[in-house]
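Hey team,

Filing this mostly as a record. A colleague (T.K.) asked me to run one chain through the structure pipeline before their review meeting, and I want the input and output archived in the tracker in case anyone asks later how it was produced. No errors, nothing strange. Just documentation.

Input sequence:
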Amino acid sequence: MRRLLIALLATCSLSAAAADNWKPFPLDQSAYDYSGDRLRQAWPQLTRGFGDYPFPDADWVVRMASQHPQALEKTVTAGTGFTGQPEEAELYAQKLQDVWRLMFRGDFAQAKEQGLALGIGGQIPAMFAQVIYAMFLVPDQAEKHRLLEEVIAYTDEAGELVQADTVAQFGRVYAKARLGEELSVPVVLKRGYTTQIPNELKALLAKQPQQPFALALYGGYEAGVIRKVGKLVGKMTYGVSADNMEKYFQRSFQARDDLPIGHYEYANALTYVYGDDEEQKVIEHLERAVAIKPINAMEALEVAHAQKMLAQYRQKLAKN
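Output structure:
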């Protein structure tokens, strides 16, 4: 009965994924073709924001299946065609790599659909694609929130298995942090985000102390709390401070200085914490963000976002 229920849930999830009427990627995708061996060759650079993240080849599939029998059970029950046999691992790995290719290319709807069809392993790039799509391509706030909440729900359903993958961990806390920025303080408190976000980031950084994405997100979280409740209440109630914000971002830049999102998130944080007092520094980091040549669809959207922010700041300065 339990297996049948899981299978039905998997079928419902796939139907929902296929029904999503997502917009196509609005920018040129020609530079983000990672077919064949290109994906493996570019993998360290494509995933540099996550630190040392393993390439999902057949060896990785076999290792994860043997180390995490619960994940294997979910994968088998979802009808993915992979039952844990080593001879099946290569085909499953190829399908999983194709999902990552779709995600990096900006084919987000297909990445979600094909990723969820691979069970819990494919859920990782599927939900990564959904986070990017929600943040950059959904103008309606209610729909953006729904998509981010769905990401959290998917990772929560994975239970303890989410601890086995740092991208899954980051995706969940990133979704919570973005929701926390836009929801009211009472709602954020009711959901427990003010406790969950720092605790999940600390757990992630305990595994990867120099993960650039997690460090930048922590800095952004501290700045976001200050923006909402002020420096004094932020420090007294939530333990956040401008000094901590600066330290997290500097650690992130020391780890990787070539991530567009790191620079424009820092620009946002400076505005949240200092208002107009650090305008020149804000512009400097936005200029650094737009100077980075994107190597995947996510970075292209980040650079485009930074360009809009930079244009707004320059226009503002021109009026003064």
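Quick notes for T.K.: DSSP finds 17 helices and no strands in the chain. The chain has a mean pLDDT of 91.
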